[in-house]
Every structure is written in C-alpha cells, then in structure tokens.
Task: structure prediction
Amino acid sequence: MPKPVYEAVPYAFLLGGVAAIASAFDVSGVSHLLILVSGAMLILSSVVVLKMRRDARRWARRRAALKARLRYGSPSVFSPWGIKTKNR
Result:
C-alpha cells in the first residue's frame, strides 16, 4: 500500500465515523442505532490505529537510539542486560 494512502486510512475512518454519527440524526428507528454504533466503532478504530502507530514509532526510535549508543557510545553505556559495553 502506498505510504500516503497508508497514513490517511485512520483519518478517513475518523471522518467516516463523524459523518455517520452526524447523519444518524436524520434517520429514525433501528437504523438510527446501527448508524450511531457503526460511527462510534469507526472513530474508536481510528483512535486505536493512530495510538498503535505512535507507539510503534516511539519504540522503533528507542531501539535505534539504543543500538547507536551500544555501537558508538561511551564505555559507561549499559546494555539492556546490564553489561558494560566498549567503544567500537
């Protein structure tokens, strides 16, 4: 999937959820409830996807920084296992 499309998907979910909730007030009966629930699910899914992406990017940056410190860092840098590393 192209990166711009991949990045836009949660925002499309969010807009779709808001549009569904806004349009639910023009309908009555059981369909009103179904539209509200589906809109809420779309909004919730967009929030979950955005949070998961943020967390994954944060962990990737931390791993990269740790690898760089272990590879190029000072002798006082400790590895995750508590072993002192050397400059390489």
